[in-house]
Amino acid sequence: MADYREAPLATRPKTLDPAEYFNLSLDQRRAEEERAGLRAQLKRQYQMQLNNPHRKELIEDPALTRWVYARTNPYNHFRATKKTSLLGGLFGVVPLFVLYYVLKTDRLCLTP
Amino acid sequence: MRISLFNVTATIEHGCRGFQKLGSSSFQGETARLLGAFSQIRAASGPSKGLLPGPYPQTPEERAAAAKKYNMRVEDYEPIPDNGEGYGDYPQLPDRSQHERDPWYSWDHPDLRRNWGEPIHWDFDMFIRNRVDTSPSPVAWRTMCKHLFGFVGFMLLMFYLGEKFPSYQPVAPKQYPYSNLHLERGEDPEKQPEEVKHFNI
After folding, report:
1. What is the ipTM of this complex?
2. pLDDT tens-digit profile of A56-112?
3. Which end of chain B is more exposed for a tag (fewer CB within 10 A), N or C?
4. B87: Cβ–Cβ under 8 A, 6 or more apart, which residues?
5. pTM of the predicted model, to two decimals?
6. Per the CB < 8 Å rule, is A10 touching B100?
7. Does residue A4 belong to the interface with chain B, where contact is any CB pair within 8 Å?
């Protein structure tokens, strides 16, 4: 597989990446094994629930719950910085005034 | 503040600490305090506070706990940089779309190309296979941008110049026969029309 050429419009698979294929240090191998271990545990948990004949309910995914919670509750960790204030003003305050002016001076009635 | 609804129990644990932490900022203090008060109220069903995303981790212990929570290695876990936009301790995962994942691996959810329990990218709903694709393009991105905007810019420039400096065949005012259409224009038929000379031989 050393002469693998990339397929067009596709990323090179991780297993064929030459940086990961040759010259792997022990630390890298250990890291990969740890990651594989985590993946295997998650797979096992899922399969146990999936193939449980007594299961009647949906399999709940805690990663999904966390993602949904994180996406719907950003204001818990919101801080007013320069950037966030600028964005808030730009999207929330400026359109009000701009739209007011634009709609008032529409071409049918040129006076505000 | 206790709200007693069916199946909702107000947990005011760390409430006082939350107030103090949020009350440090000046103007935002008022609204932040209110928000902080509401964020302490959750239903008793669902995951416990330790399993849900929390604030940006400050100490290495918090980092390790967050990595364990998200099912990642401590070395792999890198929270999104804290810039006040509300990410908390959510991990920064590589910005790779689901198009780039191996189509032949036996994913738990094959259409999403994702395994159960795997940490989800913040913009996962953008990276699904119906939407944004970060796969390599046939030509480099910069080249594509240059070609497109170069062509569009060039066409815009040329049309603008064409408006400014129009070029057409020489034209003259229209010449009508019958003494400049004397009768058709409704003038007096008895009156002699004025002689209009259109040419010189």
Report:
1. 0.82
2. 999 999 999 999 999 999 999 998 899 999 998 999 999 999 999 888 888 666 566
3. C
4. A70, A74, A77, B56, B79, B80, B122
5. 0.69
6. yes
7. no
